[in-house]
Amino acid sequence: MEVNRRTVIRGAAAVAAVGIAEGTAGVAFAGTSSSSGSSSTSSAYSLEFDSTAWSYDSTNDVYYQLGKVYVAAPAATDIEHLSIYVPGAYLKATANSDGTTYTATPDPKGTVGAYSGRTAPIVIPVNTPGYAGQSPATSYNYSSVSQYLEAGLVYVWPGLRGRNTSTSTRSDAAPWGVTDLKAAVRFLRYNRSVLPGSTDDVFLFGMSGGGAQDTVAGASGDSPLYDPYLRTIGAAMNDAGGRALSDAVAGVMAWCPITSLHEANLSYEWNMGQFASTGTRASGTWTSAYSTDLAKAWPAYLNRLGLRDESGRNLTLTESDSGIHLAGSYYDHLIEVITTSLNNFLSDTTFPYTVTTMGGPPGSGSTGSSTTYETVADYIAYLNTDSTWVTYDAATNTATVSGLAGFAKSQKSASKPVGAFDGYSRGQTENSVFAMGLDAPAHFAPLTRDVVKANEATYATYSDWNSEYGSAAYDSDFAKKDSVGKDMAWRADAYNPLYYLSPAFAGYRRSQPARHWRIRTGIMQGDTANTTEINIALALRNYGIGDVDFATVWAQGHTQAERTGTATANFIDWVESSVTR
Asked: What is the distance between the alpha carbons of residues 66 and 87, in angstroms, rounded to a whole number?
């Protein structure tokens, strides 16, 4: 259903209120046409924002609305609705006769901090760990949005479908999460005349799977790959004048994005797996041979990307005397990134320095441990416990990293099995991201399939091989089509940020990437390869994006990694610097 503001949208079975979680019953869904209850419906909803339905928090001077369905034909009314929170200065409001709601219009001259009701950026959280769904807000809680509103930002919280929200009659797997996010952005632009804030300055922020999905959304603005999905749910495609609406955003804040899944199996084994020898990488297992083959396949893929550093140098991997392609300009660039991260840590840190390790799960009796390093020299000695891969110059308080092997063995060991993302038995989280329905995980990575196809005769000679792991299983999954009629190749491209950013892919320059990027990652995380974020940053710069703020953070893992300060405060400051520069 393609919708513009001239469309009259009615439905006989629209939902007025649905209890969608514990303690959430009675949330009114704005724009509905009857009170029939349902958790999923194809009934039509109005995309017009109701300016007469604002609630007001007088203590904190905040206007807000909850439960606004943001598409005309939602697949999941319990998920596809949003809440919006606005500093009071940005609206002119009068109380309605019901004594609880307000009718309000934007006040472009109202100010909070550096912003006005006309210029305030709109920030959207993408809290989807492991590509899970994002539950919509179902009650008002000022503390969850206070820092953003006090800084003068408009905060919009959409519910998003994800790998864990599918039902027996509906698959919410990729690309529905990002589709919903794009639809929410389109809804804001559809209603820009009645909402405060600048819809030209929409910023997304998320971590892990959320960082991945905001990276995809930020790279794929207005990509035609999403059009059939957006139309299926009745997203706003045109404004009142019939002009096309955009889902491109201004900025992306991504912490530890688990993305570029199409090649992630390969890069994981090259970056980390080739230095491991236990578990699925133990000698004598077919998966050990598989690990080596995946690692060997990655350099050829990397070299096709045509990445360049800031000086214009082509970045490639070449064969090395030991290890798998541990040489070349790309390898040198990676070592530079690792070295810079360590030196930033040395600059930021006051010694003595204490490292605290996490304990085991609740009830395990393990409480973790702490180790204090009195001096930098003590810490460097710890890094070099098993081999010397760091040298330190006390005169300049700087270190030099000699190679990837020492770093990976000491600080970034592989925490996932071989086939870390597209699992050979379809058992990894990401197999569910591309599921074909409830409890139907699927293969999605042709690069992985090609490695299996080329080597499965050899794998079959191992006693732990199972023919179900063969390439035929991948081919079968790739051929299946989703409810919109698209196969796995289409869906995987839609969720690959490099598809839009690299000339190696057909989607290059067929989207509108965000113009501001801030990427942070804990360099020690075992969740993904260092190369994941590095390649996104390189591709953005090569594309011509001028504002790419990228850093790896030493001594931090899979978290909202920051060198100094807090993640929220740093994000808020970055948004302001982005829109005022």
From this structure: 15
Cα torsion 527, 529, 531, 532 to 10°: value is: -30
User: Residue 67 in contact with residue 29, Cβ under 8 Å?
Assistant: yes
With residue 188 as reference, give the H or E element that holds it: helix 176-190
CA distance 33 to 43: 9
Write down the pTM of the prediction.
Answer: 0.92
Q: SS3 for 384?
A: coil
Nearest to 528 by CA among 329, 266, 317, 232: 266
User: In degrees, to the nearest 5, what angle opens at C-alpha 82 toward C-alphas 7 and 236?
Assistant: 25
Contact criterion met (CB below 8 Å) for 308 and 504: no
Tens digits of residue pLDDT in 310-348 = 999 999 999 999 999 999 999 999 999 999 999 999 999
Strands 369-373 and 353-357: antiparallel
CA 28 to chain centre: 29
Question: What stretch of H or E contains 102?
Answer: strand 102-106
Cβ-count burial of 563 within 10 angstroms (0-12 exposed, 13-18 middle, 19+ buried)?
Answer: middle
Report residue 397 as tokens. Answer: 């308080």
Residue type, 532: T
Pairing of strands 198-207, 251-255: parallel
In the structure encoding, which two tokens stand for residue 169, read together? 């009659």
Note the pLDDT tens digit of each residue in 181-212: 999 999 999 999 999 999 999 999 999 999 99
CB atoms within 10 A of CB 319: 11
Helix/strand number for the chain, H first, E second? 16, 17
CA 46, CA 214: separation in Å to the nearest integer? 26
The gap from C-alpha 264 to its chain's centroid, in whole angstroms, comes to: 15
Q: Tens digit of pLDDT for each residue in 487-541?
A: 999 999 999 999 999 999 999 999 999 999 999 999 999 999 999 999 999 999 9
The dihedral of CA 96, 100, 103, 107: what is its sign? positive
Backbone angles phi, psi at 357, to 5 degrees: -95, 150
Surface-to-core class of residue 82, CB atoms within 10 Å of its CB (0-12 exposed, 13-18 middle, 19+ buried): buried
Amino acid (one-letter) located at 88: G
